[in-house]
């Protein structure tokens, strides 16, 4: 079984266009150089395909963040009971990177046994992904646009 943290590591590698780096939940300065594990051209193609998931007609359109391109994959897994047979319980997930044009963040959302009558990743975990990632991007852009004194920088 793959853990959400292991899956996040894969998506972080996708977000760096094939460069694998040790996973860190805090900023590492200077960044670790990493090791190329996939050709950049291949990963850029995959990211481009993943963008379509959050576009109209895609299975993860509920993850869409207005004004941003995101690259995601949604999924749904049926659980197995103690006897090894499938049961009517599910795990929904949405994983991806943003912004798709120049990924800065990777995120995995896993909903274990959703209870609201819906259980597909596109219906359950995608909106959560969009809310979390949208907030993260907004926070990052706010910080990037502010000087140390909290005032917004304006280039004239």
Automatic annotation (TrEMBL):
One of its GO terms (molecular function) is penicillin binding. Its main location: membrane. It is an enzyme of class 2 (transferase). Residues 2-133 form the Penicillin-binding protein transpeptidase domain. GO terms for biological process: cell division; cell wall organization. Its EC number is 2.4.1.129. Keywords: Cell cycle, Cell division, Glycosyltransferase, Membrane, Transferase. It is found in: Membrane. This is Cell division protein FtsI. The keyword Transferase applies. GO terms for cellular component: plasma membrane. Pfam families: Transpeptidase (PF00905). It comes from the Bacteria.
């Amino acid at each position: 079984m793959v853990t959400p943290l292991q899956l996040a590591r894969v998506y972080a590698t996708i977000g760096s266009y094939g460069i694998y780096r040790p996973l860190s939940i805090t900023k590492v300065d200077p960044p670790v150089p990493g090791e190329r594990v996939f050709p950049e051209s291949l990963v850029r193609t995959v990211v481009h395909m993943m963008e379509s998931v959050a576009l109209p007609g895609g299975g993860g359109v509920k993850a869409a963040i207005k004004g941003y391109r995101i690259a995601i994959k949604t999924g749904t897994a049926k659980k197995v009971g103690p006897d090894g047979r499938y049961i009517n319980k599910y795990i929904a997930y949405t994983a991806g990177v943003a912004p798709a044009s120049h990924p800065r963040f990777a995120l995995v959302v896993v909903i274990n046994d959703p209870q609201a009558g819906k259980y597909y990743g596109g219906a359950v975990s995608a909106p959560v992904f969009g809310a979390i990632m949208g907030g993260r991007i907004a926070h990052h852009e706010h910080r990037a646009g502010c000087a140390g004194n909290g005032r917004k920088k304006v280039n004239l």
